[in-house]
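chain below, 266 aa
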Amino acid sequence: MRIKRRHPTILRPFAMACVISAVNIAVFAQSKESQTPLQRQIEVQKNRLTSADAEERRDALIKLNLMRRPEASRAAAASLNDAEPSVRVAAAHALTSAPSSDAANALIPLLQDKLEFAYALGKSGSRDAIAPLTNLLATDKEMSVRAAAAVALGQIKDEDETAVMALAKAIDERAPNKKAEEYEFVRRAAVESLGEIHSPARVTILVSVLTNEGNSLDTRRAAARALGKIGSNSAVPALQAALHSDDPYLAEAAREALRRMHAPLK
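prediction:
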């Protein structure tokens, strides 16, 4: 029986495909070998982000967050649009190791998960986050979100006048209807954040909060602690006066602040 030989032109495409495939495999293997241990770890977690299991995706983001590297944060960014809220929150936290402007730009459009994203914006440390945070502080219907926005402004630590004035306004503002008790948390968060922001105006505001007996004792205690942290001599008289308060906890907060400042107790 005569065997029919295949024409060389038929075999060439098949041979060429084999060569290309072999080259691609070799290049892929070489690129894997050239990766650093960190890059390999990130790649593993990045692949897990495509899992159908939301808990596995969330766990991968937690691991990326623990790496505390910009490269890991960038790998987490796509999950900010995940269908599962808990995964989006984990992605927001993982993004805080990215450069501050990158983190803020990614988080600002996603403020529907307002509480967690407010905290994440604060951790980003970006000035770009100040405007949306001050808006949340002034207008959000949920007092927990307003308090989170106040805390976030303190975490940014920028002496931007907009942030300082927004925090001062939050302290002086009347509580929304039927939310007086909840709003005390907002006031206290705003006072504590003023203790973190590097602005000359903050001392005057905090002294006013401390000396105003119309404020709650909790808010006045927070003001005393914040003034002690700042350490400005201009706050000493107000702190010394607070030593004689009928509230022992306020008196103790003032005493501790003065000690921290190495100021005389009178």
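DSSP finds 15 helices and no strands in the chain. Residues 14-20, 22-31 have pLDDT under 50 and may be disordered.
thats it, cya
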